[in-house]
Design goal:
Radius of gyration: 30 Å
Oligomer: single chain
Mean pLDDT: 88
Helix content: over 70%
Organism: Nitrobacter winogradskyi (Nitrobacter agilis)
Low-confidence stretches: none
Protein name: RNA polymerase sigma-70 factor (ECF subfamily)
Number of strands: 0
Length: 160
């Protein structure tokens, strides 16, 4: 307990806010607890380690802040930041379309489904799909195109 107060005070003398000093002190103690090597279970001088670790953490924090300065925002400015997360309605809609697509793929003949999966999901080229299925490249393309059309038709049926 005494060491934590000493470390926090030393950080505050360096201009660190009390809250930030407490956070850095806690992080230094965590580093001390995880610093043991297999051949050495304790640090030789824990007090020195804590002071050095807290100082290094503070320096790292200053470096990070220089690279990515923080800007104070008002509540109104913060609320005006657009959210790139999809809406709940979009998530539900997309999941429904995914379920319809999966069901449509299960309806396909095995070879057609495999051709589609290798090309679309496995990102394999038409020639590779043809070779692995033992068909011509023209036939592989016909299988893949047929699968795309089947999935598209099922999605259109669900919309209408």
């Amino acid at each position: 307990m005494r060491h934590s107060k000493e470390i926090a005070n030393a950080l505050r003398r360096r201009g660190v806010s009390p809250e930030n000093a407490a956070d850095l002190t806690q992080e230094a103690f965590l580093r001390l607890l995880t610093a043991g090597r297999p051949d050495q279970t304790k640090c030789d001088n824990p007090r020195a380690f804590l002071f050095r670790a807290s100082r290094n953490l503070h320096i790292d924090q200053i470096r990070r802040e220089r690279c990515a300065p923080q800007v104070a925002l008002t509540d109104a400015e913060f609320e005006a930041i657009p959210d790139d997360m999809p809406s709940p309605e979009t998530i539900v809609f997309d999941r429904q379309r995914l379920a319809i697509s999966a069901a449509a793929l299960r309806e396909l003949p095995e070879r057609t489904r495999r051709a589609f999966e290798m090309h679309h999901l496995g990102e394999k080229g038409i020639a590779t799909v043809a070779r692995e299925l033992g068909v011509s490249t023209t036939r592989a393309w016909v299988l893949i195109r047929g699968a795309y059309r089947h999935v598209r038709d099922r999605l259109r049926e669900a919309e209408g």
